[in-house]
Amino acid sequence: MRSIVVLTVAVCACSEARPLQGELANPVSWKEEIAPLFTANCNSCHSGAAPAGGYRTTSYAEVLGPYDTPVAVAGDATSKLLRTIDPAQADAVHKPVSEAAYSQTHAWVVDGQLSYFRSATHEGGILNPHDGEFHSNLVRAAGWNFSECQHCHGDDLAGGKVAVSCQGCHVLQVPAGGVPTCASCHGSPQSPAPPRDLTGNTNASARGVGAHQAHLVGKTLIASPVACGTCHVVPAKVDSPGHLDHPRPATVTFSNLALGDGAKPSWNGATCSNVYCHGGGTKLASDPAALLRAPAWTAGTSQAFCGSCHGAPPGDSVHANVTYPNCSGCHPRTVTPQGGIVISGTGDTRTSAHINGQIDVGP
After folding, report:
1. In terms of residue numbers, what domain contains 167?
2. Distances (CA, A) of 363 to 105, 283, 327, 331, 354
3. Is residue 231 within 8 Å of 254, Cβ to Cβ?
4. pTM of the prediction?
5. How many domains would you assign to the chain?
6. Between 20 and 30 A from 90 (CA), which of 29, 52, 80, 338?
7. 322 and 234, same structural domain?
8. Do both 326 and 262 map to the same domain?
9. What are phi and psi of 226, to 5 degrees?
10. Under a CB-based contact definition with an 8 Å cutoff, are residues 146 and 135 in contact?
11. Same domain, 123 and 15
């Protein structure tokens, strides 16, 4: 049987794309043997919302344990997982489990190197974030070029000739040739701004999606596109510090237009406030007629309307005798006689005197 398994894996493997990782020392793997073993012996206690000891055995990643304090370490016979169910030292609760599961679990941890599935190409650590052969480490070593992955898993990474999809855990759109773009992980071929977010969400109610596109196009055109760098530090490269090495959610770092007219914006995870684009800054912040200066990030574009960031008209003495939409008499480059916002150009080249950091007053 061992010979059949190894031969089958070798025939299906993508060894021509990257070298073999070594001989499969032991055919025991998570998918084939350990997951069913733990289902039968461990999951009754170590599953659900309140698992025993805070430890779940219902998935590969959970069994490995936290990144900083792994419960199972490849090749380490003293791993906490093995010590807990070792017949020589198991407590009364784990004694029955040790008799049923220790031998095979030991073979998986020590000889099988915590292999997720049997593979002569991706042995052991391909799905183990604690392992040097973890797949993100391999892609990083390749300069973030996915061409070798695409050779076997297809240009769309959805299975290819090995019928193993990468898209079960990732939502990647990498162009043929392997060189990723910003839209490979978030956004679309038309725009790097979500939707899609990093987990594939497309609804604005998801925090990763929210109002990203509203800042680029919106339900109604009210300004030039807001550059990504206004709210985020845009990485120069895929592996720039603060990009992939930063836990989600992304950091909001305001700059440029967001700081216009002395605005001091802040972000609390649900909304931004005191940002110039939404009525912050020395001049606009003093307007008592503004209706919505802190729009909810996930509540949609209905929050962008005349009167939200400043009154329509503003509630100061200068505008005391003005009625909406009679704005163009003083702001002809910003507002049409009908009260619409003046937008020039199309797409990413659009320009507008509205929300540009300066108040337009002219004949």
Report:
1. 142-180
2. 81, 21, 12, 8, 16
3. yes
4. 0.76
5. 3
6. 29
7. yes
8. yes
9. -85, 120
10. no
11. yes
Within this chain, do residues 118 and 46 fall inside the same structural domain, yes or no?
yes
204 domain-assigned: no
pLDDT at 12: 39
pLDDT at res. 19: 42
**Residues 302, 256 share a domain:** yes
Task: Give the whole-angstrom CA distance, residue 288 versus residue 281.
Answer: 13
Q: What is the pLDDT of residue 1?
A: 34
Residues 155 and 222 both lie in one domain: no
Given a cut of 70, the residues of the chain with pLDDT beneath it are: 1-26, 218-220
Q: Which amino acid is at 16?
A: E
What does residue 52 show for φ and ψ, rounded to 5 degrees? -60, 130
Q: Are residues 255 and 356 in the same domain?
A: yes
pLDDT tens digits along 13-59? 343 444 444 455 557 899 999 999 999 999 999 999 999 999 999 99
- Cis ω for the linkage preceding 249 (within 30 of 0): yes
- 302 occurs within a structural domain: yes
Look at residue 219 in the predicted model and tell me its pLDDT. Answer: 58
Position 218 scores a pLDDT of 63
Q: Is residue 191 part of a domain?
A: no
Residue pair 63/80 in contact (Cβ under 8 Å)? The answer is: no
Do 345 and 278 have their domain in common? yes
**Is 94 contained in some domain?**
yes
